Each structure stands twice: as structure tokens, then as C-alpha cells.
Amino acid sequence: xxxxxxxxxxxxxxxxxxxxxxxxxxxxxxxxxxxxxxxxxxxxxxxxxxxxxxxxxxxxxxxxxxxxxxxxxxxxxxxxxxxxxxxxxxxxxxxxxxxxxxxxxxxxxxxxxxxxxxxxxxxxxxxxxxxxxxxxxxxxxxxxxxxxxxxxxxxxxxxxxxxxxxxxxxxxxxxxxxxxxxxxxxxxxxxxxxxxxxxxxxxxxxxxxxxxxxxxxxxxxxxxxxxxxxxxxxxxxxxxxxxxx
Length: 245
Ligand code: ADE
Prior knowledge:
Elements: E1 2-7, H1 14-17, H2 20-27, E2 32-37, E3 50-51, E4 61-62, H3 64-76, E5 82-92, H4 95-102, E6 106-111, E7 116-117, H5 119-125, E8 128-131, H6 141-152, H7 162-166, E9 185-186, E10 189-190, H8 193-196, H9 200-218, H10 230-244
Parallel strand pairs: 1-2, 1-6, 4-7, 5-6, 5-8
Antiparallel strand pairs: 3-4, 9-10
Helix pairs in contact: 3-5, 4-6, 9-10
Bound molecules: adenine.
């Protein structure tokens, strides 16, 4: 999978792309990154990439010409279909979108900056606006890194075992169950007995219940679309009743 990242600050990507799992993914040829400096496509002699908004107001808006030129240059040499623009105005990134994007061969991510991006960029390039959540970052670079990370780990072979991507939070629409490792006791806190029992059926059942409970407490909105069994539903009823008591 190849990511084309369009940014005014390519150096911001040095760390995240050259460490740990993403570095390994690049070294093994599973993932490729191409950083494009939007400023290289500016059309005036001062290499301007932003300007004051029409209609007035604070801040600067990213100009249309450099961005469209940059995307067209990428498209000339690739088979890119989807273009993502990071902005707090966008559709929130979730695991379903990450899975969908991981099926693409190539992806363009435009890092939005300043107060926004000239609306004609979206119209001319068909860019899809994606947000990390309901908060404002100083720019879209960190959001782009989050997208790259969430998508890359779903590319087959990037994680050590395919299982680890599947057992994660959200794979079933639920938050993850709690995990423990050695020692079995620390400062008086014991690891739940069932996890030491070796009874795999009981362990699976306990984990499922903890995942349902965690989701019920922290993100009840997820329960509407989670894949729930009859046993899960019964347990949820018990949790809801316990709260009313
Ligand atoms: N740029 C600024 N804030 C953002 C957010 N929440 N998500 C994506 N891009 C952003």
C-alpha cells in the first residue's frame, strides 16, 4: 500500500514513519510513503501557500492552486482513487473507515492547515474530509499520522500475527477486555483467578463479559452497532438492572 502525504511540514513525519512497526512495514515493502511538499507546487515567486479568507475573518486559508497542482502531479504517476483531507469538519475516523482504506492500493492524504482549505480543493479533487474527533489540532499532520498508522496495521503482514489485529478493540464493535501479564500479584493487586486457570472456555467467557461491561460503561453508543450474542444481551440487561438498583 502506498501513501502520498501532501503537507507543508514533511519533516514532522520523520519520527512516526521511521520507528517500530511502520519502519518494519516499509523495510519489508508492505507499505510505502511518499511525502510531497505543497510549497513546491506554489505558483508565485514567494511560494505562497495560504492567503486571507474572502469575506474577512481571522486566520489564513490554504490556497487552491498549489494543492490542486500537487494532487494532479501525484495522479499523473499513480493509480490513486481516494483522496483524504484531514480537517475537524470531516467524518470521524473509525475502525470501519480504516478497514475500508486498507483495501486501497494507493491513498492521498492532504494535511489541512491554518483556518481551513479553499473549498474548491474538495470540489476539484473529490477529497473526502476526515476528522480525528471533536477537538482542534494545530494542523492536519498529526491526524494524517493517525490515519496512516490505523490503516497500515491492517495491511496483511504488517502485524506479526493476523490475530492481533482482529482481537483488538472495535473488531467486534466492542472495547477491549483488560489484559494482565506477570507478576500475578503486585502491591496486593491480584490478576483475576480465571486467567490463571488454564480453562480456555472460561477465559473467553470472562473476557467477553469484561469487553461488554467496559463498552457499556465507557461507550454505550457503540452497543447499537456491536455484534452481540444472546448471552451478551442478557449480560447487558443484568448490568443495566444493577445500575437501577
Ligand atoms: N486538523 C485540526 N484538527 C483536526 C482534527 N480534529 N482532525 C483532523 N484534522 C484536524
